[in-house]
Amino acid sequence: MILIVAEHSNGKLNKSTYEMTQAARDLGREGPITLLVLGSGVAPVATQAALLADQVLVADLPALSAYDPEVWAQAVAQIAREGEAHTVLIGGSRSGREYSPRVAVKLDAPLMEAVISMKFADDTTVAEHYTLLARVVERVEAQAPTVVVSIHPGAFPPASARPQAAEQYDVDLDLPAPRVVVTERNTIKSKRVALQDADVVVAGGRGLGSAEVYAQLVEGLADQLGAAVGATRAVVDAGWRPYSEQVGQTGKTVQPKLYLALGISGAVQHLSGMNKSRLVVAINRDQEAPIFKIADYGIVGDVKEIVPAIIEKLK
Amino acid sequence: MGLRILSVIRQVLDAEESVRIKDGMVDPSSSKLVLDTMDEYGLEEALRIRDAQPETEVVALAVGPARCEEALRTALAIGADRAILVETFEPLDVITVGNVAAQVARKEQSDLIFCGGQEADWDSQAFGAAIAEYLNWPQLTWTTALNLEGRTLTGTHDIDEGTESFSVELPAVITTQQGLCEPRYPTLPNIMKARKKELRRESFESFGLHSRLKFIRSEIQVKERMRRIVDGKDGSAAAQQLVEFLRNETRVIG
Ligand SMILES: Cc1cc2nc3c(=O)[nH]c(=O)nc-3n(C[C@H](O)[C@H](O)[C@H](O)COP(=O)(O)OP(=O)(O)OC[C@H]3O[C@@H](n4cnc5c(N)ncnc54)[C@H](O)[C@@H]3O)c2cc1C
Ligand SMILES: Nc1ncnc2c1ncn2[C@@H]1O[C@H](COP(=O)(O)O)[C@@H](O)[C@H]1O
């Protein structure tokens, strides 16, 4: 079977789960598509999953109320073994990319990481993924019958739901106790669309000058466009914005239809998180800023003059 | 005996270098190569522990071609006590390299391992977790602050949507990123001293492993961009043009 570990938050499947399902449907390898729902109080999520998969496995356990990489890896490896999964698909989120290697080691399987395309043919799985700060696409072939794959967010189209709901089965798990003690968790619940799910991202850099101007201009424009808000490392290090909004090598990877870069220089580490965006608009007062090299539309000018005018015109 | 820390490093293209491809493979031979900054944060944390507890030993490890010796020499010049190079010509997948690193850690009786959260060559986030799983150790990825008291490590790290404060008992694998600390530079006396420090070579073949992935080809990704750059001295006019462009030519906004 093809085992997909559902990603979900706030009682709903994440977009990544739909994308993984499409990747599984297009893979070209036989076996039922099985969605595994891990968590506590996840019945509504399992109901949604049933419209995507051939079968749904549900582990609704208090021990799964909070994510832990070792617990998650153990759960997924156990289910993969019992179900004789030949392909295990895991989300390309920070957590997915952190526990998927453990699953691969447990299953003695190769790991294909953050893949953007994938096919099974002539008895092997072939996949593509980015390397060198997302400047290169590398094609790799698995040297084993079983593979563990994490799926790059935004690379596959989301699968559509089916009219008929699949069967749900409860599963029992033998889980380890977490060894890392979490003493505090600060999750940012933004009322905006999630960064990785957004069609439009408005991102700001140090060029905004201060947290106040940042909030006024970047959030102001995002409000007008129904967009998610992104930031550079420089901005989160300065404490203007939370780390969860950071885009780039050490932040999130986004691929929206439109990315607006305001006062961002365009360092390679930032570009690696957004250079696959369909359309890039940049506003920067330095015409030599590297961000203009990857811009479809650029304005050489002061964000403090141009952005308020844009917000006004969109109202 | 003091703590034994393993700092695992990779040698990558300097961030300013452009990528060259030859025969379907990335060709670094005429580019400037450096010790990945991502790994330097871990090395710095290791050295800070040694500054506080001088009986600590910091060993730098690289798995890769002979040229990685240069990155290890940099690590020695920054302050590592010794270095190990597991030499291989073959390109290897991250799980296999994780296996090698775990075996070295076992032989070295390491208590704590640092590596970069996502190195700039293979764009992999799997390295630390793979090492941790082979050793059956806990891991903390994307750390942003660390503090060691005895064998208890506390700190903060990034998660999917926010941050966590944690506490863990050694041994553990820690992955690092920009913002964790300010790495120190090699000083001239340390560069001189580094030449005399031990750099041990081992062959990858002696580990009895083989790559789990076959690398078929690499291609540079270029996305065609319109590159329409306009002057924005008149902010209102520039704003008007942009809004029209977005509405009429791209249709991404209504
Ligand atoms: C290992 C490592 C990992 C990293 N990971 C990331 C990452 O994930 N994400 C990330 O973003 N960075 C990352 N960085 C940092 C990266 O190298 C850059 O330092 C950072 O992206 C710069 O942010 P910035 O563009 O906001 O600031 P700056 O580079 O300072 O650019 C500010 C820009 O604003 C322009 N400007 C100033 N005032 C105005 C104005 N009034 N109007 C218009 N324009 C103006 C300036 O011309 C300049 O181009 C990483 C670095 C390292 C070493
Ligand atoms: N990467 C992941 N894969 C699967 N489940 C996850 C993942 N991350 C978090 N969860 C679980 O999803 C549920 C909702 O999490 P939250 O996003 O905190 O609302 C919890 O049970 C989490 O443990």
What are the defining features of this structure?
heterodimer, A: 315 residues, alpha/beta, Rossmann fold, nine-stranded mixed β-sheet, five-stranded parallel β-sheet, 17 strands, 26% helix, B: 254 residues, 2 domains, seven-stranded parallel β-sheet, three-stranded antiparallel β-sheet, 30% helix, globular, binds flavin-adenine dinucleotide, binds adenosine monophosphate
Instruction: Name the helicity range of chain A.
Output: 25-40%
Computed over alpha carbons, the radius of gyration of chain A is 21 Å
Helical residues, percent of chain B: 25-40%
Question: How would the global form of chain A be characterised?
Answer: globular
Give the low-confidence spans of chain B: none
Just name the CATH architecture of the largest domain in chain B: 3-Layer(aba) Sandwich
Strand content of chain A: 25-35%
Walk me through the structure.
- Chain A is an alpha/beta fold and 315 residues long.
- Chain A has helices at residues 15-25, 43-49, 69-82, 94-106, 211-225, 233-237, 268-271, 303-314, and strands at 2-5, 8-9, 12-13, 33-39, 55-60, 87-91, 111-121, 124-131, 136-142, 147-151, 167-170, 181-187, 200-204, 228-231, 258-262, 279-284, 297-300.
- The longest helix of chain A is centred in the last third of the chain and has 15 residues, at 211-225.
- With 254 residues, chain B is an alpha/beta fold.
- Chain B has six helices and 16 strands.
- Chain B has helices at 37-52, 69-78, 94-108, 127-135, 188-196, 235-250; strands at residues 4-8, 11-13, 21-22, 25-26, 33-35, 57-64, 82-87, 112-116, 139-140, 143-149, 152-159, 162-169, 172-176, 199-203, 213-220, 228-231.
- The N and C termini of chain B lie far apart (68 Å).
- The interface between A and B is large, with 97 and 83 residues.
- β9 of chain A pairs antiparallel with β15 of chain B.
- The structure holds flavin-adenine dinucleotide (FAD) and adenosine monophosphate.
- Flavin-adenine dinucleotide sits between chains A (205-207, 232-235, 246-251, 263-265, 267, 269-270, 273, 283-286, 289, 302-304) and B (37-38, 178).
